[in-house]
Structure formats: structure tokens, C-alpha cells
Amino acid sequence: MVRLELDQVVIKRMKEEDIEIVKALIKEGCEGTENRLILHILTRPLCLFILAVFSSILRCLVHSFILALAIPVFLLIVFLKITMPRSTGVLGSSRPYWDYVGSSYREAQDDTLQNPYCRISGKTPFTKKPKRRAGSKDKDKETTTEKITPEREQAAGQVWLAECEGDILGCIFREGETRAGISRICRLVTGSWYRREGLGRLLVQSLEQRERDTGAHRVYAHVPYPSKLGEAFFRKLGYRQLGVETSDEDDMELKQESPERGFLGYPLTKVYYKDL
């Protein structure tokens, strides 16, 4: 764990040269989430019943109890890994992938979010040029040849990075706006060395403030179903679970913002929301 001064963190839009670093950060932050989701599905009663039926049928074809038990489980795990949304990480997303190039920022001057800790401390964050990985120049040349239209940028959404002294410490993804006044956080990741330091809270609250200033009145977040830590995190920030802590007037929202579902219709995420 590294002690982090939150008033020195700059939150800015991701650019093309940051894409590879962001992908590595996400891979690190999402390790184990997919396996926990698969285990959650495999241990549901209906799923266990189906596996037991297939095992009984195979027992009549193969003369090994272990094979008859292991083959259905193995095939189901392979199926789930192929069909499960790849973007289901710390937060879920209906997208099977993310358009990193389309969501990257292209203006010369950085677009940043307000850091509330700077106002409290009165300090100005120190920034320097982010570190670049070897071979990143060649990758940048490849990505800049892609056609980026306003429609693609709108659909791709935005990625905001938490940076301190040139190092990218975390990121938060905001999906493209599909409904007026509604914002959706689809992923939140912090580096392993900077967890439990308030960085995730800073990213969420800074993005909420921007969405509030631009006219949004509600923010949604999808949390992977077995993630107790993610649920507790958003509850502390004032989020409520849709469908459990909602009133009758929010019944229509259940249809608009339903949880991601996987094998046999089992939910992969829980939907949380906050009115701004």
C-alpha cells in the first residue's frame, strides 16, 4: 500500500497514448471477477440440477463416475467463459468490448474534472508527462488511422484517468448517453497499490459533479453479483439498489436499466443508482 495525497491527483480524459496502460490496469484490477461470477452461476440450484441430470446420462455412456461428473462441469465453464460479457469487471457493462480509440480525447488542451480535495487543501496538483511504454509510438500510428466520427465518440463514451506525478493510478468509464439526464458508470478500477486510499471515491464523486453540472439527474452503476466489496462501496457513496430500495414510480426504470444476465437468466450484476 502506498500513501496517496488525494489533493495531488489530476483527473483527466484518456488519450490514445494512454490506451495500453489503461488496458493493463483493467486486466490487473479485474483478476478473479470472471471466475467468481462463474462460480456463482455453477452453484445455483437449477444449474446444479441440470448438471446432475447430464452426469446421470453420461454415467450410462461412460464407465467412470469421475468423468461423468467432470465433463458437464468442464463444458459449462468453457461455455460461460466464451459467452460471458468480457467487460464485466469491477463494474458490469452490456458491451462485450470497449471502444478505447473512439472514447479517447483528441484536443490539445487536457479536459479535467474538479478535484474537491484541492479546494480543501488549497494546493495545486503537480503533473508531468505520463510515462510511455516501449513500442507505443507504433501503436499510436496504427490507431490514428481509424476513422473517428462524432457518432462513434458518442457511442463509445468517456474514460477518465486519475494521474499523479505522471503515473496513472486508476480509471472510471462513463458509457455514451442513451437517455437524456441519465448517466451510467460502467467500470471503475484502481491500481492495487492505491486501494483503500479514497481514490475510487474521488473518481466517482468527481464524475458525479461533472454529470450534475451538465444536467444529469441520475447515475447508474452495475456491480458484479458476488461483489460484496463493490456493493458496500457504492452504498457508502449514497447509492441504492434498483428494485429493492425503490418506490413505485421507479418501476419503469427497472425495464430501462435491468441487470446483466447470463446462463439460464441468472443475473450477473446488481444495479445501483443515485439521484444527483
Overall description:
Residues 118-257 form the N-acetyltransferase domain. InterPro entries: Acyl_CoA_acyltransferase (IPR016181), GNAT_dom (IPR000182), NAT_camello-type (IPR050769). It is found in: Membrane. One of its GO terms (molecular function) is N-acetyltransferase activity. One of its GO terms (cellular component) is membrane. The chain has 276 residues and is an alpha+beta fold. The protein has a domain at 6-17 and 91-125 and 149-275: 3-Layer(aba) Sandwich (Aminopeptidase). 41% of the residues lie in helices and 17% in strands. It has eleven helices and eight strands. Strands 2-1-3-4-5-6-8-7 form an eight-stranded mixed β-sheet. α3 (45-61) crosses α4. Residues 87-94 and 133-137 have low confidence and may be disordered.
Label this structure with key terms.
single chain; 276 residues; alpha+beta; 11 helices; 8 strands; elongated; transferase; transmembrane helix
* Number of H- or I-type helical stretches: 11
Query: What is the CATH first-level class name of the domain at 6-17 and 91-125 and 149-275?
Result: Alpha Beta
**Structural class from helices and strands?**
alpha+beta
Give the end-to-end Cα distance, rounded to a whole number of Å. 32 Å
Look at the structure and name the CATH superfamily of the domain at 6-17 and 91-125 and 149-275.
Gcn5-related N-acetyltransferase (GNAT)
Taking the sheet with the most strands, its summary is: 8 strands, mixed
| Total beta-strand segments | 8
What does the radius of gyration come to?
21 Å
Determine the fraction of residues in helical runs and give it as a percent range.
40-55%
| Arithmetic mean pLDDT | 79
Low-confidence stretches: 87-94, 133-137
